[in-house]
Amino acid sequence: MALRKAGEMTASPSGLRQHLTRSGQHSDPWGRYYTSDEVSHSLIERIEVSKPKVVLELGSGSGALCSAAASRWHDARLVTVDVDRQAPKRLDAEHNGPSLKHSHFVHDALDEALSDKIGLRLGTVDVAVCNPPYIRPRWRSDFGKILEDAGLSGALASLRDAGADLLFLAQNLRLLRRNAKGWRVDWPRCAGIP
C-alpha cells in the first residue's frame, strides 16, 4: 500500500486481496459486509469523474465509500441512504466541518419511489456507489420497475431471481446522470443480454 501526496491510499489489486476476503467474518442482521478503508479509497480513486456535484451511496452502512468520496471531492453534495439510523455517524465524524454537504436518509434503498423520498430526480446523480447486502430480498412488484427503468429487466431468466446486488445496481443506474462522463458501459451487453 502506498500513500499519495494528498494522503489518499492507493493499492495494487494484489495488495487489496488481503482486504477483500477475511475468513470467519459474518454479516450483520441486514446481510452487510463492510468495505475496508483501503478498498473504499481504491475504488473511489478509479472513478473517472473529476468534479461531481452529487455523490450517492445506497446501503451506506458505515459510510466507507462516501467517506472516501468526501476525501476526494470536497465540494460534492453527499447523499447516503440506509435503513440503519446509525449509518452516517462515521462520515460526519471524519469530515466534520462547514464544507461537508451531507444528507442521510433512513429509508429502504430499494423503494421504487426512492428518488422522491430523497429529493433527487432520476438521472441527476453524478457518482453512485454501493456495497449491497448479500441477500435475496422477498420479491416486491416495484423491483420489476426498478430493473426495467435501468434496462436490466432481461438480465435474468426470472426477475424473482434478482438479488440485492443487481437491485442496488439497477437503483443506482436509474439515479445516475445519463450523459455524464463515466456513463460508458453498455449495461445490457455487460449483463450478457444480446
UniProtKB/TrEMBL annotation:
Alphabetically ordered keywords of this record: Methyltransferase, S-adenosyl-L-methionine, Transferase
PROSITE patterns per record: N6_MTASE
Pfam families (alphabetical): MTS
Record-level Gene Ontology MF annotations: N-methyltransferase activity; nucleic acid binding; S-adenosylmethionine-dependent methyltransferase activity
Segments of this protein annotated with the region Disordered: 1-28
Bias type Polar residues, positions: 11-26
rRNA processing keyword on record: no
CDD domains noted in UniProt: AdoMet_MTases (cd02440)
Protein's GO biological process: methylation
Keyword Methyltransferase recorded: yes
Domain of life of the organism encoding this protein: Bacteria
InterPro entries listed in its UniProt record: DNA_methylase_N6_adenine_CS, SAM-dependent_MTases_sf, Small_mtfrase_dom
Limits of the Methyltransferase small domain: 37-136
Annotated protein name in UniProt: S-adenosyl-L-methionine-dependent methyltransferase
Lineage of the species this protein comes from: Bacteria, Pseudomonadati, Pseudomonadota, Betaproteobacteria, Burkholderiales
